[in-house]
Amino acid sequence: MKNVHKLRQKEEYTDVTLQSGDVQIQCHRVVLAVGSDYFKAIFRCGLQKNASDTVELTMEPEILSSIVDYMYTGGIELTVDNVESLVKACDVLQLDALKDSCEEFMTTLVDVTNCCRFFRLSRLYQLQNVLRTAKGLMLAEFKTAAFSDEFKELSSSELIDLIKDDDINVDDEDVVAQCVLDWVNHDVKRKSSFETVFERIRLPFCSAKYLCHMKSTCDMLTPKCVEYLNEALRFQADPAHQHEVSSCRTQPRRHFHVKPRLLAVGGLTCSKKVPRVKNNLCQYYNDVTSRWETLTKMPPSVGVMYSVCCVGRSLLLTGGMKEGVALNQCLLFDVATKKWEAMPPLVTARFYHRSVSMGNSVYVVGGRGVTDNNVLASVECLSLKRRQWTAMPDLPQAVYAAMVVTYGNSVFVFGGKDAQNAALSLTHVLDTTRRQWSSRSDSPEACDIGAAVTLNDAIYVVGGGDRTCLQYNPATDTWTRLSQPRGKHGNAPAVVWRGCILVAGGGGPNPESSAIEQYDPLTDTWSDWRSGLDMKLECHDMLNVDLCDL
């Protein structure tokens, strides 16, 4: 090749001319064809073997000269000034080896002052190593990168690629929202893309003050954008039910201080020697280690068959049974401080009941009373502000082991068992504002010892001994049968987790299980979750708590 290079320098035996601007370079077509698929293709398809043939290229003459020297000698000097032009030329001429060398060199040049430019360049020319480096730096230093002039030159697809990433390093979403507004205002033509980009902002994690300011001052908000803002305000209004709203906007970024944790609380476990032993542990699932770890132990006064619900960032335990006697106890557990606190006791002692929270109120529904045969119709409401229980209108029918869930300002009660232990298919709704009960359509099948959860605009009744999975639409008062769980989950809880529904453990005719099944509403399919419970459980509770310091 050294000798061939000397021939080129003397213009001996050259048979093609490369031209860029006014500069012409005599070359040997065989060398160009061996080094570049681009030249191989055009020599095969068009040019004859005539020394007067000329190939015109639109690139800087000095770049073309450097590339020709590289193809003859294998050597080239990469600099800050020429590397971007060389990458563009390599992309045209299909010089993969030289392009790889340029990419390796460019990766060393990326810093916070130029990461936006390299991010755009790497996407354009498929430089994956540069893309990872530049994007990683933009995400890590988002507060700096997002307000640079180069950031404002991103296309809408490039901006969406960034803001949909979970790894943006911000404490809340205010910075992301503001950089999007600045990006749109930079070019009036971008207003047509605003709604598409706006959809990707994690609005529920903006500060309430910023959301209200945006709603009152931003003149680009479409009806869909207003819907996203209202979703965010509703999300912030009731922390205990945030997980019931699932969209691309309600998933926290990894750097937010608030992160979801899955809790498994108490219940009954079984062993080969002694069946149905009280489980005294409250555990949380560690996403890093993929193991269940102990959060706290239940207080000595706690029995079995109690009910636990989320209240803000805390847990509220009500009722239960101990040594055959129904309990009226009420305990509050602060997940952050890991301390239990006694609350005003229930008006009526009960077990095998259900409890749900709504804002600053907790509703306790039905259950069994002092004796096993005493099935309750009574409903109580705890005001957390006043720390006082108030009697609500009785259920139209006494019931225990019902499926209870909140939706809007209403408490829905599905199925359960009556005093004769018969499974029910009734649906009762308590309007908490009017303090009135009403009836809705019966479920397609009787269901008891199952669970109910709210996800977006529907309620799902799942589990139980008969492998139930039903969807109820409150707006139309209609039911839909869905695919069944693969196992039986009697006396097992369900919880919404990252847009899916988990049903954990449970019993029935067979011994208790530790299996967790996951239901995906988008595909109507069940699958095994990543992990089972730490032990075989039934009559336990499972909750989604948004805290990071567990």
UniProtKB/TrEMBL annotation:
PROSITE patterns assigned: BTB
InterPro entries: BACK, BTB-kelch_protein, BTB/POZ_dom, Kelch-typ_b-propeller, Kelch_1, SKP1/BTB/POZ_sf
Span of domain BTB: 14-80
Record-linked Gene3D superfamilies: 1.25.40.420, Kelch-type beta propeller, Potassium Channel Kv1.1, Chain A
Signal peptide segment: none
Entry-linked SUPFAM superfamilies: Kelch motif, POZ domain
Keywords: Kelch repeat, Repeat
Name recorded for this polypeptide: BTB domain-containing protein
Organism (species): Ridgeia piscesae (Tubeworm)
Source organism phylogeny: Eukaryota, Metazoa, Spiralia, Lophotrochozoa, Annelida
